């Protein structure tokens, strides 16, 4: 039942914006086995900073009896272009220069990811996808799958996502990029591997971390609690020596703690999470993916009449999506608020909208795993009784 | 009817956290005249990045027949400690070193501002304040006035504010500080006057600008509109020469625009506003004020029983505030959401809560001037008929 990670390399891959990537690698992970009809396929689309290791970010949903059950489905999750976790990205070597792409990695779109991942399905002999599921950026990808390949996908489950990237989210992306540009270690993206702009990436991640939750959830978790000075770490006044009681300063050295102000737990949380992220992720990849999300607009190039109004254009595209999707909202989501999923539910034929009442904010699509699991299991058993012969 | 700006210097000023500032200057502006009873006093408390120039940020509320009417009130607005607009701050000269305080400017609290501004009232012979009004950080100050001087203040009008800085806002403050620290020009706060960390300050401001509005307001204003390439400006591909048609690149050089991605109007808005702010404000002052707001907690040191629960502590302090305040909320405020003003309204005796239904977000307390003006005029005429002899 455990998954296996694979890579597939294609000789060249044409991008939506016109450029062609030579020798493109796609990393994917699969669980379970393809049935005889080759149609028990579940595609999981990962969010912004996720990877093919679904166990790491949607772990409670995967396993026997769960929403993502390899007993019933052949499950596949592929890494998107520009992500640092295995698929071709700014970290890959540009064969024309022999150096990493870095900031010269060409712009990609959600549709590029779908078309690239379709090559994986082709390689595996898949001719029909039962369901595509994804949250946040993964939800954008879930929406694009049947639009790019209309006869391939039977059902979709988009969570905490939108038909087009909103102005507010475009603004967040821009603010985060400007934060990274502020780090002089960024050097226009031409930073050496051993000296990446960790401080800027950590600060950008902190901004993300605040937007991913809600005011209520921060209040409940942290309130005005002060930090245990040794629980995370301070940049200044580091304790030194090999005494076992010293604070661990490795991660927190990326972020800076000035002066004598009281230190609140909410701050330490951001420091720790920001610094950890900056160690694991790559700044050029981060920037690339924020631009990719900005391109998300399911109506782009799909509406023939030039002067049609936005609402009509959106409706005309939504109605071409597979009927009876399960759409999941988190009530306190400020990034992709419930009314954006209501637009999806109003436009896609026979849609079911489940609003999960939670203070978890946007991250609710990851955090509220128990309620999401229950909704998805119920939905899948209803839509695909043929896969559940128990 | 136009205001006049003054300064008052006190020989020394003791701060709440123990340090004493020598020779402290407070900048204030006043409109109208003190009546014979010396009690027609209206104190306006400015928000985070505001100044005593109320005309600049609450202009539509000031004037004849308006909420802040110098015909009826002696109106005064004083600049807070640590703000770059006239009162002693990190920009001031530390007499012990002959250099600017910079990052060594001591921590101050909202209560320090109230006690310092009270010295201005003493200087002017004011013995009773009719009303204190303020939004956001100014609302924190409005709450602290009667708590610091219980017999002085008759009424308060706090807008878009809270009894204590929330964990979410603490997190925002921390993220913004980390952004500024990321700018190598910051140099731990010891930047020369001519080379301030403008890029970091602009990026921090951008984050603020996104939080000050709502997703809906960005959507309505910007949507997915692309930028007119000359309406603001690009860092790269600057046009040069003295041709009248060139773009103005001065401000936008602070922020960076990389590569060939589509440029959305929402991005240009942030670039322009961020860069303008970074030219007008000071990074050490910005950091100082975010820390000041983090200290805001009206229960601090005011509850005698150590183990009393938070809710009881808050109630016991709120009930000592002057009765019948006018409390104003903006329905879409994500920074100080309406439920925080509901806590105030539930705790302060005979409170009136007005929730303004608006998509303007936190900035609604500035933007929704017409509805705020109407509510405040009605309230003031009811509470202080003696000042309105027309």
UniProtKB/TrEMBL annotation, chains A, B:
GO BP term (any one): homoserine metabolic process
Domain of life assignment: Eukaryota
TM ranges: none
Domain AB hydrolase-1: 40-368
InterPro entries from the UniProt entry: AB_hydrolase_1 (IPR000073), AB_hydrolase_fold (IPR029058), HAT_MetX-like (IPR008220)
Active-site residues, Swiss-Prot/TrEMBL: 136, 333, 362
Family annotation (NCBIfam families): homoserO_Ac_trn, PRK00175.1
Family as reported in the entry's similarity comment: Belongs to the AB hydrolase superfamily. MetX family.
Protein name: Homoserine O-acetyltransferase
């Amino acid at each position: 039942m455990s998954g296996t990670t694979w890579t597939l390399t294609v000789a060249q891959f044409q991008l939506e914006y016109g450029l062609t990537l030579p020798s493109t690698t796609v990393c994917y992970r699969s669980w379970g086995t393809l049935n005889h009809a080759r149609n028990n396929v579940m595609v999981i689309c990962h969010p912004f900073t996720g990877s093919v290791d679904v166990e790491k970010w949607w772990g409670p949903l995967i396993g026997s009896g769960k929403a993502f059950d390899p007993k019933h489905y052949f499950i596949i999750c592929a890494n998107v272009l520009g992500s640092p976790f295995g698929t071709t990205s700014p970290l890959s070597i540009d064969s024309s220069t022999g150096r990493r792409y870095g900031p010269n990695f060409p712009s990609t779109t959600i549709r590029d990811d779908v078309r690239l991942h379709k090559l994986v399905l082709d390689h595996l002999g898949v001719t029909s996808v039962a369901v595509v599921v994804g949250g946040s950026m993964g939800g954008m990808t879930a929406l694009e799958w049947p639009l790019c390949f209309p006869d391939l996908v039977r059902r979709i489950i988009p969570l905490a996502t939108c038909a087009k990237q909103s102005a507010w989210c475009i603004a967040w992306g821009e603010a985060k990029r400007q934060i990274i540009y502020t780090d002089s270690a960024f050097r226009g993206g031409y930073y050496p591997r051993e000296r990446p702009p960790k401080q800027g990436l950590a600060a950008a991640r902190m901004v993300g971390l605040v937007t991913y939750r809600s005011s209520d959830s921060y209040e409940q978790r942290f309130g005005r609690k002060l930090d245990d000075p040794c629980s995370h770490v301070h940049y200044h006044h580091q304790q030194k020596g090999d005494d076992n009681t010293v604070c661990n300063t490795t991660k927190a050295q990326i972020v800076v703690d000035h002066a004598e102000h009281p230190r609140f737990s909410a701050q330490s949380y951001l420091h720790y999470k920001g610094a950890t992220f900056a160690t694991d992720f790559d700044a050029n990849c981060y920037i690339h993916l924020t631009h990719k999300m900005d391109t998300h607009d399911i109506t782009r190039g799909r509406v023939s009449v030039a002067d049609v109004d936005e609402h009509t254009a959106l409706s005309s595209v939504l109605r071409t999506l597979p009927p009876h999707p399960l759409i999941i909202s988190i009530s306190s989501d400020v990034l992709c608020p419930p009314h954006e999923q209501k637009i999806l539910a109003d436009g896609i034929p026979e849609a079911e909208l489940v609003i999960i009442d939670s203070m978890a904010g946007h991250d609710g699509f990851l955090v509220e795993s128990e309620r999401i699991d229950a909704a998805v299991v119920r939905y899948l058993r209803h839509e695909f009784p043929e896969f559940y012969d128990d």
